[in-house]
Write a structure and sequence with these properties.
Length: 160
């Protein structure tokens, strides 16, 4: 066992982990069930998180590699009472169906919008690439990201 400290959504967790434990499995053990276990090989995208500001597939990261680092899951974005503009846009645009892929898509989109406040369709497609959705044709998700980007730009302009 190896002792690590990982910050998840602003809270530090001191945990003992086996060397082969993935970040995905650790997060689920800690109760972050929005991080889904899909393929286990980095292909489906259901396990996406933000690790030190970079979107990644948590099934491909060992838990011990997260020692001293910051992880964000979709719980960090918003909630039912105060949704993040991306969450609201995904609902408004009908981009949420079964919901399995949505937490990771939201995080991938948020990572994109933190770097690019007005992405093109191709840039959105690239950011969401690797997040498989079996329920939709991705058009609604792309529209939702564009809608959220506009809302976030308007909010930023209002705050200036």
């Amino acid at each position: 066992m190896i002792q690590i400290t990982v910050n998840v959504n602003g809270e530090d967790f001191d945990v003992d982990v086996m060397p082969e434990l993935t970040l995905l499995d650790l997060l689920r053990e800690l109760g972050f069930h929005s991080v889904k276990k899909g393929c286990g090989e980095g292909d489906c995208g259901a396990c996406g998180v933000i690790l030190d500001g970079i979107y990644c597939k948590s099934c491909l990261v060992l838990a011990m590699q997260a020692d001293g680092r910051s992880v964000l899951t979709v719980e960090s974005m918003g909630n039912v009472d105060e949704p993040h503009p991306l969450q609201k846009a995904f609902v408004d645009e009908g981009a949420v169906q079964c919901g399995y892929c949505i937490p990771s898509m939201l995080l991938a989109a948020d990572a994109l919008l933190s770097e690019n406040e007005d992405p093109t369709d191709d840039e959105i497609k690239e950011a969401l690439d690797g997040n498989l959705c079996r329920c939709t044709g991705y058009v609604k998700q792309i529209n939702a990201v564009k809608k959220a980007a506009k809302v976030l730009r308007e909010e930023e302009n209002d705050n200036e």
